[in-house]
Structures are given as C-alpha cells and as structure tokens.
Amino acid sequence: MPASDILPDFLIEQIDTPIGLTFVVTDRAGTLRAVDWDDHAERLHRQLERRYGQDLSLSNADTPSTARRALEAYFAGELSALDGISTEGAGTDFQRDVWRALRDIPVGQTISYGELARRIDRPKAVRAVGLANGANPIPIVVPCHRVIGANALLTGFGGGLDRKRWLLAHEGVDAARWGEPRQAALF
C-alpha cells in the first residue's frame, strides 16, 4: 500500500490561547483548512465532513505546523505572523472571493459588510457577503472578525462576540467606538 494511502487527509492540533482552547486543522501539505474553539468542536467536525466528505481522516499532528506556530506568535503579540499562512476553505467561488478580500483587511482596521461587498465588485450582495463571512472556516487567519455593522456595531461572530471583541482589541482597534453588540448581523 502506498504511503499516501495510509496518511491522514488532515492533521489537527490544539493550542491554548487567551480566548480558549483552539483547534488548528491542516492538510498534509501544511495548508490551513480550519480553525475553531473547543466549545465548537462538534461544529468543526460537521463542517469538515460537509466540505470534504464523511470518510475524511483526521489525526493528531506529530509536530507543530507552520499555521500553529504563526497563531501562537499572533497571540503573543506578533500580529503580522498570520500574513504568510497558506489557507484553503473549500467554499463556493463567491465565498472564496469574500475570504480572499478578508485577508486584505489590515490588522487594526475594520470595514462594514457593504464595504466588503464593494471590494469584491458585488455592491448589491451585502447579505450574501455576510453569509459568506459567517461561513468562513478559518477565523482569525481569514479575519472575519474585522467586519462590523455599517453603524459600527459589533455583529455576529462564530466564536462569539466576546472573542471578536478580544481579537479586535488585541489588534489595537478602539473598542470605545462600538455600540452595544448585537448577535445578529446588521447589513
């Protein structure tokens, strides 16, 4: 049996972060496929199966991945550490366009869903952009937390608004300008 037939499709690692135990999923080539928190482990497994099939093999990594080391550096204060991580979210073409645009939002800045729609040349697709943002399987690295409501209110985040608030503050975004957070996205 060839070695590729016995290797897992994906490798999983756990890192302890200031916002909770975090799972990091990479493929054999080291491409980051998913990030989620331990309190959302079931969601992580459902998303992986839906995107890659139920026969997906997931094994513990033997050595720290580049993605894990970059995330640890980010949480330690090296905010640019995430810039070079290779990612693949296995979404639709539209979702991938949104996720690529998210990676162009600089650290310490936020934009609205409407602005994100304009950046991908789909200004009328604001709600679809919000849905694609919410379906992002690689939060933090594909920084969906940097998207806020048009009225500067914090809006939904798969990891919870407390984590979103922490990530933005970690990146130096002034939290005083946010109104009361709302769980539902405001477009």
Automatic annotation (TrEMBL):
<dbReference type="Pfam" id="PF02870">
    <property type="entry name" value="Methyltransf_1N"/>
</dbReference>
<dbReference type="GO" id="GO:0006307">
    <property type="term" value="P:DNA alkylation repair"/>
</dbReference>
<keyword id="KW-0963">Cytoplasm</keyword>
<dbReference type="InterPro" id="IPR023546">
    <property type="entry name" value="MGMT"/>
</dbReference>
<comment type="function">
    <text>Involved in the cellular defense against the biological effects of O6-methylguanine (O6-MeG) and O4-methylthymine (O4-MeT) in DNA. Repairs the methylated nucleobase in DNA by stoichiometrically transferring the methyl group to a cysteine residue in the enzyme. This is a suicide reaction: the enzyme is irreversibly inactivated.</text>
</comment>
<keyword id="KW-0227">DNA damage</keyword>
<dbReference type="GO" id="GO:0032259">
    <property type="term" value="P:methylation"/>
</dbReference>
<dbReference type="InterPro" id="IPR036631">
    <property type="entry name" value="MGMT_N_sf"/>
</dbReference>
<protein>
    <recommendedName>
        <fullName>Methylated-DNA--protein-cysteine methyltransferase</fullName>
        <ecNumber>2.1.1.63</ecNumber>
    </recommendedName>
</protein>
<dbReference type="Pfam" id="PF01035">
    <property type="entry name" value="DNA_binding_1"/>
</dbReference>
<keyword id="KW-0489">Methyltransferase</keyword>
<dbReference type="InterPro" id="IPR014048">
    <property type="entry name" value="MethylDNA_cys_MeTrfase_DNA-bd"/>
</dbReference>
<dbReference type="InterPro" id="IPR036388">
    <property type="entry name" value="WH-like_DNA-bd_sf"/>
</dbReference>
<feature type="domain" description="Methylguanine DNA methyltransferase ribonuclease-like">
    <location>
        <begin position="15"/>
        <end position="85"/>
    </location>
</feature>
<dbReference type="InterPro" id="IPR008332">
    <property type="entry name" value="MethylG_MeTrfase_N"/>
</dbReference>
<feature type="active site" description="Nucleophile; methyl group acceptor">
    <location>
        <position position="144"/>
    </location>
</feature>
<feature type="domain" description="Methylated-DNA-[protein]-cysteine S-methyltransferase DNA binding">
    <location>
        <begin position="93"/>
        <end position="173"/>
    </location>
</feature>
<dbReference type="GO" id="GO:0005737">
    <property type="term" value="C:cytoplasm"/>
</dbReference>
<keyword id="KW-0808">Transferase</keyword>
<comment type="similarity">
    <text>Belongs to the MGMT family.</text>
</comment>
<dbReference type="GO" id="GO:0003908">
    <property type="term" value="F:methylated-DNA-[protein]-cysteine S-methyltransferase activity"/>
</dbReference>
<keyword id="KW-0234">DNA repair</keyword>
<dbReference type="InterPro" id="IPR001497">
    <property type="entry name" value="MethylDNA_cys_MeTrfase_AS"/>
</dbReference>
<dbReference type="InterPro" id="IPR036217">
    <property type="entry name" value="MethylDNA_cys_MeTrfase_DNAb"/>
</dbReference>
